Amino acid sequence: MARRYQTDNNSFYHSSEWQVVRAQVLARDGFRCQVCKRAGRLTPATTVHHLKSVRQAPGLKLDPANLETICRACHNAEHTERAQALKTKQSKIKASKRRGVKVIKASPEVW
Q1: Residue 40: inside a domain
Q2: Is 67 contained in some domain?
């Protein structure tokens, strides 16, 4: 399946510069989800989220002011396009499995 956006962000997210800034932001935010914190909840988090996406503002991709620590649930909520793509993929997998399964109805005979 082709990715929706073809970018070189994969190499960016594996760069040493990103790893250093990511560690700083996680420490700054105390490894807590900032979205949950604003809602009055304390949730551990390990994802660093760009407030303005790398695609929108490439100059801000390493700016700590453009980054926040966020939990997986909140990150998925921020990126609804990913959830939709996953839902579509899962439904296609289910449909392909159904096509390969033969349904055998119960015999009316009683043994």
Answers
A1: yes
A2: yes
Q: CA-based Rg of the chain, rounded to a whole angstrom?
A: 21
| Residue 70 within a domain | yes
Q: Are 48 and 70 in contact (CB under 8 A)?
A: yes
Average pLDDT, the chain: 81
Number of domains in the chain: 1
At 48-86, the pLDDT tens digits run 999 998 889 999 999 999 999 999 999 988 877 665 555
Token pair for 101? 């399964």
Please tell me the pTM assigned to this model. Answer: 0.67
Token pair 């926040």 is at which residue? Answer: 68
Is 9 in contact with 54 (CB distance < 8 Å)? yes
Determine the structural domain holding residue 31 and report its residue range: 13-81
Whether 74 and 36 have beta carbons less than 8 Å apart is answered as yes
Query: Considering the domain boundaries, does residue 87 fall inside one?
Result: no
* 48-83 exposure pattern, b = at least 16 Cβ within 10 A, e = fewer: bbbeeebeeeeebbbeeebbbbbbeebbeebeeeee
